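Incident log, structure service

09:12 report received: a user says their structure output differs between two submissions of the same chain.
09:20 pulled the input from the user's history:
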Amino acid sequence: MGSHCRSAIATLVERQTRFTILVHLPGDHGAITVREGLLAAIKTLPEHLVKTLTWDPGTELAQHRQITLATTIAIYFCEPHSP
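09:34 re-ran on a clean worker, output below:
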């Protein structure tokens, strides 16, 4: 979250290589905005880097089923307090 919650950044980090993509979320970090930003970013990745996603639980990720349907990527959620 940016200052005064006016912007946010979603991150995609590949676990082994630590390759990172930052997804700018200007003004809104709701579930639909996050979904659209992540889908656009995922489409830019090479296929061999796209296998699964693991996320911390949060309301901004409520559209996870739609991401799975659009990409066929399995999504897992960390146990609270055990990322």
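09:41 both user submissions now match this output. Likely a transient worker issue. Closing.
09:42 reviewer note: The radius of gyration is 13 Å. The longest strand covers residues 7-13.
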